[in-house]
Amino acid sequence: MDNTTAVGMNRTGLDMAPLSKDQLVEFAREQAPRAPHEPAGLAEVRKQYALEADRVGSVPVPASLKGVAKAAMGKLKGDNPEVLIDKLGERLAFERTGVRLYEALITKAGAASQGPMLDLAQLQAMRDDEASHFELLTRCLQQLGADPTAVTPCADVAGVAATGHLQVLTDPRTTLAQALGSMLMVELGDNASWELLAELARQSGHEPMAQAFAGPLQAEARHLETVRGWLRQAVLDEGG
Amino acid sequence: MAINLFTDKGVPLERQRFTWKELVGKPISKLDDDAFTRVRVILMNGIETDALRVSQVLLRMQREARVPLAQLTRVENHQATAINWMVSADHSPLETTIAYEQVAIEVTASVAQHEPDAYMAQAYRYALLEDFDHLYRYAALMDRLEGKDANSITQGYTDIVPGRPTVVHHRSPENDLLECYARDAALATKLHAITLVGGEYQTHDYYIHYGPWFADPVARQLYAEIASVESQHIVHYGSMLNPDESPLEKLLLQQANEVWNYQACASQETNPRVKALWEQFLEYELGHVQCALQLFKDIERRDPAEVLGDGKLPRGIEFRSHRDFLRQALAEVPMRKDGTRFVDEDDEAVASLQYRNHMNSQGSPSQGVSSAYQWMPGTELAARPATIA
């Protein structure tokens, strides 16, 4: 596919309607007094709904007796193990989607006929890293007696946030540089989230788990730098 | 090329085939294609899905026509798919909504000006002013929710100003009805009404489907409110159609309507790839008319000329900005309904006022979202001086 940025007949701007431009603006101004004036605007409605809202859902109760005991013990220690389970569930879901995002990027890179040529083997390794992180998190949740197949609230919200990236990566019309721009946002978030997860595990008294996260943290840092480098090269080479 | 519904036979129904790849072709460009290409894509999806709806209902009513109706339904569904899949994935539901309102405005404005029956023309102008207002309310939502300029979709063709305020669109059901056209009404009158019913169905279905997609309660409320009005519009336009028409008469008119619309699209399309599709589907629809003509003759034993006259088509929809007409029509904003009559604001049916007062008693979504809203190029944020620290 063509990966170049081209000049063309983009019609979205007002300058593309030179004949109607002025009358459009003038008529909107002229009709402005007919706009409603509601004292309680959008913010008030949103606030009212926020006050009445339920949450998106709950963290599932650990199913095994062992899990229940551990969760109960955590409570006794003054911790909130559901917070850790929620965030582990979020990372797990994100890494699992990350595998699919890299697979989409591999397809896009393989179809490129121009622009930056990404190292497909390196991309495949990055995809495999995400898969291994998913597996690690599955084991972590199982150790806590939690269900790794459950969708926790943070996992659900992260899934909503990832929807846009999936759309960008799987659209056949997007260029490699556009896809890399999306992946940069993914990796920036991923890095910060792994750091936070390690800190939370440590604070929750799960030091071995926190130490096990050192590997993913290093791998995600490499991913970030690689994606950032590819994007930089793609944009600057074309812009220059 | 002047088409005749009796002599131009198109592609026979049995030769109308698709592959999955053909159904999922290249989409149009949100950025580069002309807004009227998108208008035609949306309109024709509405026309096809309405044809599908009519065929599906007739299947339940017309034993002798079951096989050809099943065949027609299959093709109509695939035509609708090929058309609707041309809307590219970078259109957010709200951007598509803006485009839907532009369709309603510019298509209805054209129909209102071509309509030979003065009462029906009044009915088109009436609902037109309501869809015109919906564009303004959704534009405010798009600006204030997504930070986007609705004009990037409407491309300068359509004014973004208040019409008849949505807060007063809510009527008691009996006041949405209109007098229907006579069975011997002009073909133009019948085709106009069928087109608008299809358009409104599609718009309603889109809003009622996408309303819950939004997280923002303001958006959820606005879609709930406007979906309700679009449902009223289905009744408004739907009651124009004569209930005494036989099922096969309706099928014949529905198929003629598709030919009429495809011809208008094909003759004005600027995107060559899309134009080729309109031309292909025009030929397909002529084939469908042949099928409907045969059923009409075989089962009803009637002369199709009773319904289609000499087979010539009336003047087609003009896909262009109808800005001047719309600005003049704004003078009718105070108009209201009492039964099937159009009346002054003070004479509106009391039942509508009671219904509306209750619906709006916990706030009006359309008023709230657009409070003090004035469309400006680049969103209302562009009007405020930037502060650089």
What does this entry look like structurally?
The complex is a heterodimer of chains A (240) and B (389). With 240 residues, chain A is mostly helical. Chain A has a domain at 79-239: Ferritin, core subunit, four-helix bundle (Ferritin). In chain A, 69% of the residues lie in helices and 0% in strands. Chain A contains nine helices and no strands. In chain A, helix 6 runs antiparallel to helix 7. The mean pLDDT of chain A is 91. Chain B has 389 residues and is mainly α. Chain B has one domain (28-371). Helix content of chain B is 58%, strand content 2%. Chain B has a two-stranded antiparallel ribbon with strand order 1-2. In chain B, a hairpin with a 2-residue loop joins strand 1 and strand 2. In chain B, helix 2 (35-59) packs across helix 7 (187-210), helix 2 (35-59) packs antiparallel against helix 9 (247-268) and helix 4 (93-114) runs antiparallel to helix 5. The radius of gyration of chain B is 21 Å and the shape is globular. Classes of the chains: A mainly alpha (240), B mainly alpha (389). Chain A binds chain B through residues 8-14, 16-17, 20-21, 23-25, 27-29, 31-32, 34-38, 40-42, 44-46, 49, 160, 167, 171, 173, and chain B through 27, 30-35, 88-90, 144, 151-153, 155-157, 159-162, 165, 167, 215-218, 221, 321, 323, 327, 363-365, 367-378.
